[in-house]
Design brief:
The chain is an all-alpha fold. It has helices spanning about 5-25, 30-40, 45-55, 60-70, 75-100, 100-130.
């Protein structure tokens, strides 16, 4: 049985990841994977598998509905990405499970740092142009 503290942490992760997903469109891995590793001590593989499980369910259905109402979805692009995401997810999971968890963490961290840096610079430049 899970402790009350663990349940509260999981609920907090879910709410925070859902808010950020609806707000800026981030995937579960950016929020859920690090949160599970650092707040609940899961391994890299356990966190990745759990995050992917979450994504299997229609967790974003209400957020998608809001963006659809605002006519802010490119359905053609979305279908192509979704179909190829399945193939990429299969290949990525096979590759990840063949290398060490430490290398997976390093690669994940580098990607997150690079993307974060690009967004920070882009946001900063946007403020200076406003």
């Amino acid at each position: 049985m899970m402790s009350t503290q663990t349940i509260i942490i999981l609920i907090s992760i879910g709410i925070f990841a859902g808010i950020l997903s609806g707000f800026v469109g981030v995937g579960g891995g950016v929020i859920i994977v690090p949160a599970l590793i650092y707040s609940l001590g899961m391994t890299q593989y356990e966190a990745q598998g759990t995050s992917l499980f979450v994504l299997l369910l229609p967790v974003g259905i209400l957020a998608v509905h809001n963006y659809w109402k605002a006519e802010s979805i490119n359905w053609k692009f979305g279908v192509i990405i979704a179909l190829t995401f399945v193939i990429g997810g299969y290949i990525g999971s096979k590759l990840s499970l063949k290398i060490s968890p430490s290398l997976v963490k390093l690669i994940f961290g580098i990607i997150m740092a690079y993307v974060s840096f690009r967004f920070i610079i882009s946001g900063y430049n946007g403020f200076s142009n406003d």
